[in-house]
Amino acid sequence: MCLITFAYKSHPEYSLILIANRDEFYQRPSQPMHFWDDHNEILAGRDLEQLGTWLGFNTAGKFTAVTNYRDGRNPAKNRRSRGELTANFLKCQQSADEYLLQLEQNKQEFGDFNLLVADQTGLYYCSNRGAETHELKPGIYGMSNALLDTPWPKLQRVKQDLTNAINSSALTAEHLMGIMGNRETAPDKDLPDTGISLNWERLLSSSFIQADNYGTRATTLVMQKPNGDTTVIEQGFDVGGPLARSEYKLPLPAIGVS
Predict the structure, then answer these.
(1) Are 91 and 83 in contact (CB under 8 A)?
(2) Would you report the helix, strand and coil content of the chain in percent, each value rounded to 5?
(3) Among 50, 62, 170, 227, which residue's CB has the most CB atoms within a 10 Å radius?
(4) What is the predicted pLDDT for the residue at 180?
(5) What's the CATH number where 137 sits?
(6) What gap in Å lies between CA 102 and CA 133, rounded to an integer?
(7) Residue 219 falls within a domain, yes or no?
(8) Which domain holds residue 225?
(9) InterPro entries recorded for this chain (predicted)?
(10) Number of domains in the chain
């Protein structure tokens, strides 16, 4: 997953509003969001190459999402899959803060990552690229392929669009998911320099990506009320355009209520 923006405890009706795009090579096999056969408490998409996930919940109220940290000059090699971080959290019995405390011991074993984990104890951010692990306060945030809230053009745009939607009460699923569909690329002068080619920096600067072999594979919307009632909608895509859409309504323990 490569672009996430979310409002945490910043709206009177919803304690969490999150929209996310997962970007990946089209040939990488994966399954859309579903309850896993071998762990039927987990609702998430699944990467069939490493058997992890990029975003998901479990029925105990845990939530997690991960993005990679892009560094073309020093690519991570022979490290553990980032999808383990999310899948392991959803499978384990530890609370979010306990899980992150244990993760500090071995987080450098994984490919460079940005990680969100949440449960009743709170919503937390963790990375293995130098940022301190910490609990997030109420606010509107964005996460892409650099550290949390790094002001890349597409990140600033979706954060502002989410802020505008909240302020104008335009909180329909179509409007919120449409925020992530912007295909406008950033001017060259505003592009980040992550050590990849200029053509790739341009391609990856749009919120929604569609190239011949790489692009946005899913857009996911999460809306959770303070009582834990949660709606999750996922729209899939391939190189040809939209695929099936799924929607789940879950009565969960609410994030950050303990």
Answers:
(1) no
(2) 20, 35, 45
(3) 62
(4) 98
(5) 3.60.60.10
(6) 12
(7) yes
(8) 3-251
(9) TANGO2
(10) 1
pLDDT at res. 183: 97
Q: Is residue 137 part of a domain?
A: yes
Neighbours of 91 (CB within 10 A): 15
Q: Residue 209: which of 176, 187, 185, 243 has the closest Cα? A: 185
**Other Cβ atoms within 10 Å of 97 Cβ, number:** 14
Q: Report the distance separating Cα 220 and Cα 207, nearest Å.
A: 13
Strand, helix or coil for residue 83: helix
φ, ψ dihedrals at 112, nearest 5°: -55, 130
> Phi first, then psi: what are they for 239, rounded to 5°?
-60, -25
Would you say the pTM of this structure is higher than 0.90?
A: yes
Percentage of the chain beyond pLDDT 70 is 99
Q: Tell me how far apart the 2 most distant CA atoms of the chain are, in Å.
A: 48
256 assigned to some structural domain:
no
Residue 257 lies in a domain: no
